[in-house]
Amino acid sequence: MLSKTTTLLGLAALATAAPTDYPHPPFTTSNAFRLVVNVTDISKYPSSSIHGSEIYAYPIPSNAARPGLAQRGAGNIFYQWHDPTSGIRFPEFGGQLLTEGLRGPDTVMGLRQAIHEVGDHRILMELDTTRAVDDRLADLSMQVTPSAYFPHVAAGELSGVRFSFAVCEQKVYVPKQGELGFLGLEFFYTWSSSEPIPEGCVPARLIPECVKGGLHEVPAGSVAERYHKEAKEVRCYEDVSAIEWEKYNFVY
User: Fold this and answer.
1) Are 98 and 110 a contacting pair, CB within 8 Å?
2) Hey, what's the signal peptide range on this chain (predicted)?
3) 99, 65, 95: which is closest to 81 by C-alpha?
4) Considering the domain boundaries, does residue 19 fall inside one?
5) Domain encompassing residue 90
6) Rounded average pLDDT over 177-187
7) Cβ atoms 94, 106 nearer than 8 A
8) Which of 193, 218, 174, 184 is nearest to 77 (CA)?
9) Within-domain flag for 236
């Protein structure tokens, strides 16, 4: 197994070698984007409504939310904040994916792994508001790739472990309503398992789609003000639905 240092050095080298010679759809940049769900093998799920949907924060009975699915144009607007303490040695990494929370600009939420696991290789995702963002509310290095041919959300780039996203049927208990089901985003370890995605889940990527005009202004003194000002320009597509994915061989 590669050492952590070796893994980090390799990732840093990849980040500095921006690809230009491989067929890929054109992209631009923005400091605001939506996360569009891209099913990795649409031929296996031809009738799936998951493909092309967007990530939306669904409240649960706590100070967190679960990332579920919304129709096109209705997902949360995300941005990327770079933790200055994590990028001293490898400045390309250390991003956090943030969005405004349940109370608007006075709540900042970060996409992170939930504490509890739901299977051998399977971890729930949350958008958490219970801690300060710069106290690792969001998972570091869950960010839009700084290089690679296809901009997408990479998870755990600094961990030395491979992860994959999938959309799975989930259940959550809501007071006075009981147990409700919905389609939620999950995380999977894929380092040692050849078929880590269980039945009932659809493997997917998260593709950033630019928001025209970038981030909107937030009130001075709001919790979100600092993070909005420091939001990074990331690579994203103008219209993910217009991309003819069958023309390309998605590579990292």
Assistant:
1) yes
2) 1-17
3) 95
4) no
5) 25-240
6) 82
7) no
8) 218
9) yes
58-85 in b/e form (b: 16+ CB < 10 A) is: bebeeebbbbbbbeeeebbebbbbbbee
Question: Is residue 9 included in any domain, yes or no?
Answer: no
> Cβ distance 236 to 210 under 8 Å?
yes
Residue 139, CB-side half-sphere exposure with 13 Å CA sphere: 22
With 0-12 / 13-18 / 19 or more C-beta atoms within 10 angstroms meaning exposed / middle / buried, residue 222 is middle
Contact between 98 and 80 under an 8 Å Cβ cutoff? The reply is yes
pLDDT at 137: 53
Q: Which residues contact 126 (CB under 8 A, 6 or more apart)?
A: 64, 65, 66, 67, 111, 112, 113, 114
Higher pLDDT among residues 136 and 185, named by residue = 185
Residue 117 has a pLDDT of 63
Q: How far apart are CA 49 and CA 58, in angstroms?
A: 18
What are the residue ranges of helices labelled H in the chain? 4-16, 223-229
Is the pLDDT assigned to residue 236 strictly greater than 90? Answer: yes
96/133 Cα distance (integer angstroms): 9
Q: How far is CA 178 from CA 68, 169, 171, 181, in A?
A: 18, 16, 10, 10
**How many domains is the chain partitioned into structurally?**
1
pLDDT of 10:
38
- What CATH number should be reported for the domain holding residue 184? 2.80.10
**Lowest-confidence region among 77-86, 109-118, 143-152, 221-230:** 109-118
Q: What is the pLDDT of residues 17-62, one digit of tens each?
A: 445 567 889 999 999 999 999 998 888 887 788 999 999 988 876 6
Closest CA relative to residue 74, chosen from 118, 127, 34, 19: 34
CB 24 within 8 A of CB 149: yes
